[in-house]
Write a structure and sequence with these properties.
Helix content is about 0%, strand content about 45%. The protein contains no helices and 10 strands. Strands 1, 2, 3, 5, 6, 7 and 9 form a 7-stranded antiparallel beta sheet that branches.
Length: about 140
């Protein structure tokens, strides 16, 4: 009996959180909170690592209504905003159109950095606790 096995090894993409997204400390402006991915210290930061100079599709949740956790009827609308750059330099990062999907090319070292900001509409919020999880997906293209 002869068994032949063949495998193609594809390097995995990794997404590492460098800095958590902070939506507690920014001061509201009227009924909204705005955290810029281009220059705010409150923006979340991620590092994507994979094969050098490979192309990657990034898919993410554009917006969502976040319900108050204890069911008091409060709603916060969140609209997520992303920027990215091949180097760890937030101020030079490029803003992505809010389409929920874009393509990037990893740098020579196989890395790319993303910053996540948001605009929160608090006009329907009531006192309470609001929890959400930002969803982002990566795939080689």
């Amino acid at each position: 009996m002869k068994v032949t096995a063949r495998a193609v090894v594809v390097e995995n993409l990794m997404l590492v959180t460098i800095r958590d997204f902070d939506l507690i400390n920014p001061r509201p402006e009227g009924s909204r909170i705005f955290v810029s991915p281009l220059n705010s210290s409150y923006a979340g930061q991620f590092r994507i690592t994979g094969s050098s100079r490979s192309s990657v599709r990034v898919t993410y949740l554009i917006s969502e209504d976040i319900q108050e956790a204890n069911g008091n009827g409060g709603i916060v609308n969140a609209r997520y905003i992303l920027s990215g750059f091949a180097l760890d330099n937030q101020f030079q990062s490029l803003l992505y159109a809010p389409t929920g999907e874009f393509n990037i090319q990893l740098g020579a070292e196989g890395s790319y950095f993303l910053w996540v900001g948001a605009e929160l509409d608090l006009s329907r919020a009531l006192p309470g606790e609001y929890f959400s999880e930002f969803i982002i997906e990566l795939e080689y293209i």
